[in-house]
Each structure stands twice: as structure tokens, then as C-alpha cells.
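User: For my dataset I need records formatted as: sequence, then C-alpha cells, nothing else. Please produce one.
Assistant:
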Amino acid sequence: MAVEVTSWDADAAQRDRLDKPDGYAAAGIPVYVLIDRDDCTVTVFTHPEDGRYRQQVNAPFGAPVEIPDPVNITLDTDPLKEFVD
């Protein structure tokens, strides 16, 4: 599993939301979690195939997020609200 938090710089949209998911999928990382400080969301990418994740689930900060196998946990995202402006 890989977890990333969006950057505050101008390249964040391209790098954090597009390039990194594709790179992790190409590397075969089964689960990628993106914590997006701009959108106040958590996105869970799963099922990497041919360099792309085939499934993604978005949830707002505050909602529980299911992280599937091989991690198999429920992430409490409520504390993330404290770290955004």
C-alpha cells in the first residue's frame, strides 16, 4: 500500500492526482490512498492493471474509508479535518 498527501505547489494536480496513481499502478502497488487537502477527500485506488487503477472510491474527510485487501482496514478520516485550512 502507498499513501500520499497532496502537495501545496502548482504541480499538485498533475503529479499527485494523475502521475503518481499511474506510477503506483504500473509498479503493481495493490492499494494507493490519496489524501487530498484541497478537496478534503480521501481516494482509494485499487485493482491495478496495465498501468492504471481500475477502481477508485472517494470519500469526504469525516467519512469512514474501507481499505480493501491486502490491507483490510477501516480508516477513520475525521481527524484529517484538523489539518486543512
